[in-house]
Design a protein that fits this description.
Length: 94
């Protein structure tokens, strides 16, 4: 994590730190995969800008595997996600 960067001419944006729902570590958004629920649909948010309720998980196979095992997203989004969705997360972080 690099701090103290100067952003000449641009307003320094609020540091976008988010917490991984699996390991609870706070990381920069770029190190996390965002999963978003919008209109009842759960999907990956590649841009980080999609509206809706978001959950973050580290782009790490360890967190993805434990996410799949613990099915954290089911609880967060109060929805039963198919195994394939968790598989997709595992594949996405590899
Ligand atoms: Zn994590």
């Amino acid at each position: 994590m690099s701090q103290g960067k100067t952003a000449k001419g641009t307003a320094i944006k609020q540091i976008e730190m988010r917490r991984c729902v699996v390991c609870r570590q706070v990381r920069h958004k770029s190190e996390l995969l965002r999963v978003v629920k919008s209109n009842g649909e759960i999907s990956f948010d590649e841009t980080g800008k999609a509206p809706g309720r978001g959950a973050y998980v580290c782009k790490s196979s360890i967190c993805a595997a434990s996410l799949k095992k613990r099915r954290n997203l089911d609880k967060i989004f109060k929805i039963r996600l198919p195994n394939e969705f968790y598989d997709k997360i595992c594949a996405a972080v590899e």
